[in-house]
Amino acid sequence: MNTYKKLLAATALAMLTGGLMAGGAAAKTLVFCSEAAPGGFDPALYTGGETLDATGQAVFNKLVEFKPGTSEVEPALADSWTISDDGLEYTFKLHPGVKFQTTSYFTPSRELNADDVVFSFERQKEGSPWAKYVDGASYEYFEGMDFPKLIKSVEKVDDLTVKVTLTKPNAPMLANLAMDFSSIVSKEYADKLMADGTPGKLNEQPVGTGPFQFVDYQLNTAIRYEANPDYYKGKVKLDSLIFAVTPDAAVRVQKLKAGECQLTIYPDPADVEGLKADTNLNVIQEEGLNVSTLAYNTTQAPFDKPEVRKALNQAIDKKAIVDAVYLGQGTPAINPIPPTMWSYNKSIKDDEYNPEAAKAALEKAGVKDLSMKIWAMPVARPYMPNGRRTAELIQSDFAKVGVKAEIVTFDWQEYLKQASDPKHDGAVIIGWTGDNGDPDNFLATLLSCQAVGTSNRAAWCNQEFTDLINKAAVVSDPAERTKLYEESQVVFKREAPWATLAHSLVTTAMTKNVSGYVPSPLGVHNFASVDVAE
Amino acid sequence: MFRYIASRVLLLIPTFIGISFVAFIFIRLLPGDPVIALAGERGMTPERHQLLMDQFGFNRPIWEQYFSFLWGIFHGDFGTSIASKRPVLADFRALFPATLELSICAMLFAVIIGIPAGIFAAVKRGSIFDQLSMGIALVGYSMPIFWWGILLIILFAGILHWTPVSGRMDLIYFFKPTTGFMLIDSLISGGKGAFKSAVSHLILPTIVLGTIPLAVIARQTRSAMLEVLGEDYVRTARAKGLEPKRVIGVHALRNAMIPVITTIGLQMGLLMAGAILTETIFSWPGIGKWMIDAISRRDYVVVQGGLMLVALIVMVVNLIVDLLYAVINPRIRVK
């Protein structure tokens, strides 16, 4: 056979096999243009949204989960639960008959039981054989949500009953259990991997109970899933789901318009109007559970005086920031938590934008010729599209009241590290997107005394405030918690450790044939309810 | 000949040590560390930070870390990424072919258009073609890659629908990579339309990445040709009555190509810098974007391992070229 004939034969064969493969992918498929490649496939090892979408949301379930579109907790793998009177014991009744996914790399021999639940938490503890099962393993959410100190034990009562015992009452506990790091993994699969000497596969080829099962991941390119036929809530409408990794926001928009994907997230604010005008697309916008702030270093003079901070807050034209930086895709922030969150205190009035009054207040506080630093974050985040531009606007606002501001910036890792140090110089532009919808996740995480040195970038330790939120974390009555959080917001506004800047709208764009997508206020993306018209 | 080969191979040892040291130290000179990146906005307590730095071995004495890095390399272990927890070597193997494929295509594009354009501009010096092509080359050279990429996407993918927007292959094709080069894999296992899809995905990134080298090569070819065309031997060839085609194509071009080939070699190295942006715009899963992400996360292991792997490849290629020189040119091996 000469070379030409060989080539022809090879091409014909390739066409034949390829045709079959391409035909197989023609079922109901949703291509999601995602913003970044996942770190891996064990949801407990990562904190980035791109990894949580690809793991906890697609492949796994939790004991309890957030009701779609809300931050309310509803039953999931646990049908019901009881909490002891002292708030220390949570007893969960598991849903019977839940099957783990059968994939090309694992066939489960049993259904979900209490052993899986116990294992899913125990493995994240220091000293467990799974604590360092891959190089670089660290369970940052488990640590960050204080689980090692908070959870005394997770025990099996019987096959379908699990008891979680806490060391102290913790009202946000259920919300924490609905987060992706609390995903329930298959103990049977993990044991098999450990016995085979390949524990690392737990982070490469996941096995969960969720709506989609993992098929393949081409590094930094695409993740492929197929519908889990045994899903305990019934097979989802899609047959397959593909995450097309597309890091550039403008390119995601172009891909959506060209039909290369059917749904995408986080477009540039400047592209949103164009997306809305496109008759082939649907655009959903909703208030994100987020806040952006200018956090004064409250340990540094003159920012240690509330009257100085309040005066500066009066000098900032937030409306101009929302218009120029968020291009209208946001609202000026009044409180440290977003208005969609329960316990948001509606009665609080914002500091009125008034440069004259600000100037007078600064003079009254004895501040003259103030020079300060404003930290401009170097990366865009859903809560802050452009740190530099925001810093420039604040700089010019401050100039109007006689405050000379110098803009400084660092590489993002360095920025986070230095801003955490209570000795940093000046005011930091930063923000937060809620993890679990509980006010504690904003107020305690960002403003309590215990968070000074980590995520409390104002280094603000106000005992009155901290006592209120610490109390709210241990009482279980929602009405009482609401009252305590509302009070804490009054203290916050009075003391003004931050200038609250804005809450952004979160935009999702999809082609017209996509239906059933419910955006989550928590910034995760779940496709279990999505359908695609053919 | 044996002495020559031995000297070349021995020279690799100090080069290797030098590069390994630079690769190791460069990322550590930047402020920040890989642990802080794990927690994001949440931050972590100094105690937790210390614990993880200990756990990952970044608190050991610097020389100990360096030697364990070298020790790993000698055993084929380039470490595991702190961010992704995947082995560096496996990721490199998966991503490098994408960068190489794109770089080769971009360079071919630059050479195939740049050299003829440069020759023609030199021969027709002062003509409209000369002025126009050199003007375009200057614009091409000054074009910000990011803007140029988005512009081409909007025009050719968005408005005209001639090419896909980004990626390496239409997602309906799903096959395990054999070589990692999509043009080859699509022929081997991709099936009907896969090769066409691979080619169409390559067009825009090739143009974007190839634009700057194209401009440089065209201008370099032009100036080298102009210089050679003024030489005595060219005049002599003309005076002998040789056809202009032969004078330009044989006598002038061969000598003019010497600096051009050097330029091409240098541009090939510079392509890496352009590849970082091109890969980001076109969602191209190569090592440029991978390295830049690792640098911004201070993923020491990936940065040092990735740099080392690139350097090893360059070293081996250089060695082969040196040996080939010796085979071709006896003067070199005698020296």
TrEMBL record, chain B:
It is a multi-pass membrane protein. It comes from the Bacteria. Residues 96-325 form the ABC transmembrane type-1 domain. The keyword S-adenosyl-L-methionine does not apply. One of its GO terms (cellular component) is plasma membrane. Signal peptide: none annotated. Pfam families: BPD_transp_1 (PF00528), BPD_transp_1_N (PF19300). Its main location: membrane. InterPro entries: BPD_transp_1_N (IPR045621), MetI-like (IPR000515), MetI-like_sf (IPR035906). It is found in: Cell membrane. GO terms for molecular function: dipeptide transmembrane transporter activity. The chain crosses the membrane at residues 9-30, 94-123, 135-160, 198-218, 264-287, 307-328. Belongs to the binding-protein-dependent transport system permease family. The lineage of its organism: Bacteria, Pseudomonadati, Pseudomonadota, Alphaproteobacteria, Hyphomicrobiales. Keywords: Cell membrane, Membrane, Transmembrane, Transmembrane helix, Transport. This is Dipeptide transport system permease protein. Gene3D superfamilies: MetI-like.
